[in-house]
Amino acid sequence: MAEDLSGYAGSALEALRGAGARPGDRIRIRRDGGVYEGVLIPRPGFGDPESIIVKLPNGYNIGIRAKPGIEVEVLERGERPGYRRAPIPPLGEGLPRIALLGTGGTIASRVDYRTGAVEPALSAEDLYAAVPELSGIARVEADVLFSEFSENLEARHWREMAIGAAKRLESGAEGVVIAHGTDTMGYSAAALSFALRGLPAPVILVGAQRSSDRPSSDAATNLIGAAIFASRGPFAEVAVAMHEGVSDGPIAAHRGTRVRKCHTSRRDAFKSINSQPLARCDVRSGRIEMLVEDYRRRGEGALEVRPDFDERALLLKYYPSMDPSIVDWAVDEGYRGIVFEGTGLGHVSKKFSGPIRRAVEEGVVVCMASQCLWGRVNMNVYSTGRDLLAAGAIPLGDMLPETALVKLMWALGQTGDPGEVRAIMAANLAGEMSGRTLYWG
Q1: Which of the ends of the chain has fewer CB neighbours closer than 10 A, N or C?
Q2: Quick one: the chain helix, strand, coil %, rounded to 5?
Q3: Residue 291 domain-assigned?
Q4: How many CB atoms lie within 10 A of CB 35?
Q5: Is pLDDT of 127 > 70?
Q6: Residue 326 pLDDT > 80, yes or no?
Q7: Going by C-beta distance under 8 Å and a sequence separation of 6 or more, which residues neighbour residue 83?
């Protein structure tokens, strides 16, 4: 239809047609004594067809149900809302060169006003164009590896990210930033921590809790912080860069093997577990503050890429009344490794001792992490733990269960010898475990 009001129906459509309004127009709505002004936007596909959707001057959208007596007035004609890429700023001369790799996720997303959903539609170039501050931090060379929400990522994507990051570092990049969805960013950070051995420079994963076109988005600030770490950070490790607090304050760099997403939506959702963050940076001044002394220095060693993962590993969260036959099922189905997320110091029911013993005897590597966020596994305190040790379970100290799963998949991808896999799991390779756990608050 000429006025392009598809999706609207009933009283809402009648009121908009009567005013001659169309998406993009600035309109005024009067209803029940209230007055609302904003830009008319297309109705989301799953919204109320009899509510008029307007974007307020503060950037937020509201829906106003078209009750009898509603009045709509067009104040100013406008263009239909849509995404337009900003001009890409010129690359800064004499600045460090970093690679920006896009993989998808909220940081590389925008709202599709047709459906109301967040779509992984922005490219890495879009991010660079949308955050011109980057041109004063580094010479950014952007590329897209793939465009997926992080819940869709698999071990093959970890491999592609590892190879892509290594390729950019070998071609002279002084750091790599990977734009990634937040939901499984901790898994990918752990995977890259093991796959990229002897890193000469930082590899920073960065995400956003709110998409780039929302007024409350944290995408730009997170990306600026990630670029600062990648271009100037003294550490050469895989890290996750996200807001340290809920406001527009410092950006924290969390070691890739120690980080967990702890909140569904807050800006400071990511926390370092059983460790301090590696560093923090002030995005206004560009100043980086290292928070730990034990870190890999930039420029040390030679890069070695070991990107193979074996997906025949399970992460099992123990719960009361859990059926121990699941271990037998895993063995029969050809799984090569199991990580238990046990209770407390690393416990599961005594009923599991037999199936775990059988699994180990048949070459399956069985490991034990804890469901507790803080603290470490100690399977020598109670008889249950000692029985599990005797059955062949490997205690993983203060390693995160998610990191343990990724490490096990990586170890299985390096060797077919269960003894070698057990040795890898017991060793600290990328800061994933420590001999003594301190409490950081």
Answers
A1: C
A2: 25, 25, 50
A3: yes
A4: 9
A5: no
A6: yes
A7: 110, 121, 122, 213
Task: Give the DSSP letter of residue 393.
Answer: P
Do 366 and 416 belong to one domain? yes
Residue 194, C-beta contacts closer than 8 angstroms, at least 6 positions apart: 257, 306, 406, 407, 410, 429, 430
Say if 319 falls within a structural domain: yes
| Pairwise CA distance, residues 355 & 362, whole Å | 11
Q: How confident is the model at residue 43 (pLDDT cuts 50, 70, 90)?
A: confident
Residues 251 and 328 placed together within one structural domain of the fold: no
Where does residue 82 rank: exposed (0-12), middle (13-18), buried (19+ CB within 10 A)? exposed
Asked if 43 and 173 sit in the same domain, the reply is no
Q: What is the SS3 assignment for 313? A: strand
Query: The domain spanning residue 59 has which CATH number?
Result: 2.30.30.520
Coil/strand/helix, residue 123: coil
Same domain flag for 51 and 161: no
399 token code pair: 């390693």
Statement to judge: residues 162 and 259 lie in one domain: yes
Residue 389 lies in a domain: yes
DSSP codes joined into one string, 65-81: E--TT-EEEEEE--PPP
What positions carry a catalytic annotation?
Answer: 106, 182-183, 261
Q: Residues 39, 156: one domain? A: no
Count the residues in the chain: 441
Q: Is residue 4 part of a domain?
A: no
**267 and 225 in a common domain:** yes
Q: Say which residues have a Cβ less than 8 Å from residue 413's Cβ, sequence separation at least 6.
A: 306, 308, 309, 310
Structure tokens that stand for 60 in this block = 């937020």
The tally of domains found in the chain comes to: 3
Q: Using alpha carbons, select from 251, 270, 252 the residue that is nearest to residue 262.
A: 270
Residue closest to 15 by CA, chosen among 49, 47, 56, 38: 49
pLDDT digits (tens, 9 = 90+) for 363-394: 999 999 999 999 999 999 999 999 999 999 99
Give residue 388's domain range: 313-426
> CB within 8 A of 228, min separation 6: which ones?
137, 251, 281, 283, 286, 288
